[in-house]
Amino acid sequence: MLPVKIIGTGLYAPGKRISNSELKKLTGLEFNSEKLEGKLGVFCRHIAHLRGIAETTADFATNAALNAIANAGISAEEIGLFIVGTDTPEYISPATSIIVQGRIQKGENWASTFDVNASCASFTIAFDTAVKTMATDFSIKYAVAIGVYNMPAYLRKDDAFGYSIFADGAGAVVIGRSDSENSGYIGSQMLTDGTQFDFIGVYAGGTKMPVTTEVLEKNQQGLLSLQPMPGDRNVKLWPKVIEKLLDKYGLNISEVNHFIFTQINRSAITDVMEILGVPMSKTTTVMDKYGYTGSGCVPMAFHHAVAEGHIKRGDRVLFIASGAGLAVGSNLFIY
User: What are the phi and psi torsion angles at 177 (to 5°)?
Assistant: First the structure.
């Protein structure tokens, strides 16, 4: 076990919550609220531009990080590593993490910054990378790992499905060194299938498809769903990744105190917990409050679980996140 632990958590979502009924009024779009609430568990969300709030990815990430830093009770100047996990960056270049560092530390500092883009698995991989970097570089006293999402910025005005599900938000953790056997990082398990890159994504804006007049005329900008995603994908994925992770470190499912999943579908989480033989009291869901916030959702759910007392010091916690691409990341640690 690596002697590195989470010492602070924070989240941020812009503006007042938007209910399903208000969302229909604000967008002029129709969608099946009954299915959205009953199956996916989405009742509310935060979307900056629908509230007239001029904030984007770097704003969300900075605010979540500042909240986590305050929660940890440390000086921002002591942070030696900033990692932002997102597939909705502020710019293609420079990295969003660089902007966040500049806003928090106000200038040049002995710190490293970079982004992780593994679609909605970005935070879990950023967290794993931060921990392992700290474990080999003892000059880093504290690190901040942030998961952030601003997919509504990429939605077309007529995308009823996208607006009903995707939302803005960010979660962050501050990582410090552990001097106790009762707290530390056990390990991770990743899974990737790059042959699925053309299912769903934001394809315009990179080198393959620069944003041109032709691209805009063909409506190829923004979020595109090119192939239908299998409805049971996560139900099949998550149990086998969890089994692989626990086998890797010689642990039984009963030894995990709390599970945090990608917050895109509450019924999928319910099905997976049933497959694992674990009660729903051992997981936390927040899609009812925030909608789907991509790489932000795992640290946002974790923040709530800690704040509400569902996760306590000494608990074994398992994160698992999956996203387009296909990318899956998982973490196992003692909080």
Answer: -85, 145
pTM: 0.96
Given CA atoms 296, 299, 304, 310 in this order, what sign does their dihedral have? positive
119: Cα within 13 Å, side-chain hemisphere: 23
Question: Angle 202-206-209 (CA atoms, 0-180°, nearest 5)?
Answer: 85
Compute the mean pLDDT over every residue in the chain, rounded to the nearest whole number: 96
Q: In which residue are the tokens 């953790």 written? A: 173
pLDDT digit string, tens, across residues 145-165: 999 999 999 999 999 999 999
Strands (E), the chain: 4-12, 18-19, 44-45, 79-85, 112-116, 142-150, 168-177, 184-192, 200-202, 223-225, 258-261, 316-323, 327-334
What is the DSSP code (8-state) at residue 107? S
CA 303/CA 10 separation, integer angstroms: 6
Residues 6+ apart with CB under 8 A from 168: 13, 14, 45, 46, 47, 48, 55, 60, 149, 150, 151, 152, 293
pLDDT in tens, 186-211: 999 999 999 999 998 999 999 999 99
Q: Which domains does the chain have, with CATH numbers?
A: 4-177 (3.40.47.10), 184-334 (3.40.47.10)
Angle between helices 233-248 and 266-276 (to 10 degrees): 40
Q: Which residues pair with 6 in a beta bridge?
A: 175
Tell me if the bond preceding 326 is cis, omega within 30° of 0.
yes
How far is Cα of residue 300 from the mean position of the Cα atoms in its chain? 7
Which residues are paired to 332 by β-bridges?
187, 318
Dump pLDDT digits (tens) for 176-186.
999 888 899 99
- Specify the residue for token string 């979502």: 13
CA distances from 243 to 4, 129, 190, 239, 256 (A): 24, 21, 12, 6, 12
